[in-house]
Each structure stands twice: as structure tokens, then as C-alpha cells.
Amino acid sequence: MTRVSVQVVIACHDLSRPIERAVSSVLQDTSHKGRVGVIVVAHGIDPDLLAARLESIDGDVRVVSHVDGVRSAAGPFNRGLELVEAKYCSVMGSDDFLEPGTMARWIDHVDAGRPDAAIAQIRLQGQTIMPNPLVRLGRRHRLDAAKDRLFYRTAPLGLIRTARMRELDLTMTEGLRVGEDFGFGIRLWANGGRIDFLGGPGSYVIGEDARERTTYAPMTMTERLEPIVRLFSDGVIDDLRPAHRYALVVKLIRVTVVGIAQSLPDADATDEDYAELAALLRRLLHVAPHGLRPFNRQDRRILDGLLDDPTAARMRAEVGRTRDLGRLERWLTPDLLHSFARESTLRRYMLYYCKRERGRTE
């Protein structure tokens, strides 16, 4: 049985990745030396080569092999999480790293509060902190998946109580090129018990200096939508409480459906691509019939077009029209009543502003 309090699983599928940086960042806080361990999973590459590169790093580092021939991080992450013996566990990409002092603050937080999960504050390398999840003003502890918009952070970055993860039988979804963590994160935020947010100094940094990232490779429409389709087939959506189901559907429509629709005119999309996207939209609205209420007028042009006539010609025209719309079209909903709903654009902007102003006075 390990003596460490936290074990971080890092999956690495390419020897060009800065794996030394990732591992060192996890173990760098001398104030908590001996309380953190790292499990590096060599995904389809020689584990001895990784071990040789990491042997000079002082700390509890274990390298294991995983070979499945699949271009996905799900398999190696599941392999590493199976081996975890510590009270808390975490996952990390081999391109990513923690800022100095971050792990120490994480451990201090879980020592004091004993949450079932603690969500990391993240930022892209070279950029400012990302405002997701956009939790309620002044809220850090005992978060709610709907009220605190946790589904906008499906990646389970931070610390997870290992016993709770295993009680919920949480695993990454294998066989997907992207979105392997959707089901894991959604079920954790909805059913994980006490969920806290690890704000303040110190962030998890998503590395942007890798030679290539798997998630950036070209994908078909079916591959892009498969993570959401699997939420239906795996029963994840059906198992959610109504309020959580509604919040998740709004997030999926906003980020996936609208996001993809806005990018397709520049990607030589076909009528079949739009039809597939429209079919997913209808499926989401079937389980949350009021899912379009919080969307602004700009987004509704795109969504209504998908529901009415999901063809390349119609959607290129709709997306083109939305690019020059003013603030009122981007802020207000068609019926005005829902402009101040929790998931509305205007409500989000107001919360951004309040958090920014509050930060200036603290």
C-alpha cells in the first residue's frame, strides 16, 4: 500500500512530449515532499525509454506500459487509475503541467475539507485563467452541477477521492478519439458528493507547445459527435436529475452544436454533415424540450436553421448573417423573458463582470 496521499496519472503516447516537465511539476513542492506519487503510462511506446528520462527526478515515479493500438487517451488513463492506491487521484496530459505551489495548495484543501472532488483552476499556456466552471459568486464549496455550471468543465482535472471514483465505477470511455472524459466528468459532477473548486493562486496549465495534439487532427462529423451519442447509449443522460439534464443539454447545444455549426462553413461541409448535426440537436431537445430558451438571438438563427432546413446552403447563409449582429442580438433571447436565465448569455456576462470587479477589490 502506498504512503502517498495523491497519485497523478499521466498518459504519454509520444516520446517527443515534455514528460519531464509534467512529472517535475507534480513533485516540485518540497513542503509536501513524499505525499505525491506519479504513475506514467507509456501508451504504445517503450516504457524503459520514458523511465530513463525520468530517473533523475526525485520522487515517487512509476512507469507502466499500455498497448491497445487505439488513438485515444482513454485506455492509458484507465490503466493508470486502476493502479492508484492513494486516497486521492488525478489525471494529467503529458503536455500539461502545474504551476509552482499548486499541488501543495490542492493537498491542503482536501486535507481540510475532505471533498469527494476538487476542480482545478486551469489556463492555456501563455494565457489568462479560463472562467470555467463559472460558479456562483462567492461559491467555492459544495457546488451543484446545474447551479454552478459544472458541465462546462467535463475534463475531471483536479483531485478525485479514489474511493468515490470506484463507488461510481467511473472510467474513461474507450474507443473515442476525443471526449473520452465526457461520461466520467458528467457523472462525477452530478453524483460525486461534495464538489469544491480550487480557485486562487496556482493553476493547471494546458500545454500549447507540443508538436501535435491528437484532438487537433481532422475528424468526420460522426467522430466529432460520437462522445455525445455515447452519453445516450451509455445511459449517462437518462440517469441525470431533470435540472442536471437540462443544464447538460444547454451546454452541449451551446458548445458542440452551435460551435460546430459556426465552423462548418469554412470546412467544406456537406448536407449530410448538417443533417447529422441537426439529428443530434433534435435528440437533445427530446430529453430537454425547453433547451433552446436561454439562447440568444444570434445562436437561435443557427439553431432554428438546423431544425428547419439543415442544408449547407441554408446554414452558410445563417452563419454568415450572424457574424455582423450587434450586442443586443448576442445578449438577448427572442422572447426577452429568458434573457436573465441562469444559462443565458446576458447572465453569464453579468457574472463575468461581477467576478472581475470583486477580484479588484479583494
UniProtKB/TrEMBL annotation:
It comes from Microbacterium profundi. Keywords: Glycosyltransferase, Transferase. CDD domains: Glyco_tranf_GTA_type. Pfam families: Glycos_transf_2. This is Glycosyltransferase. Its EC number is 2.4.-.-. Residues 8-137 form the Glycosyltransferase 2-like domain. InterPro entries: Glyco_trans_2-like (IPR001173), Nucleotide-diphossugar_trans (IPR029044). One of its GO terms (molecular function) is glycosyltransferase activity. The keyword Transcription does not apply. The keyword Glycosyltransferase applies.
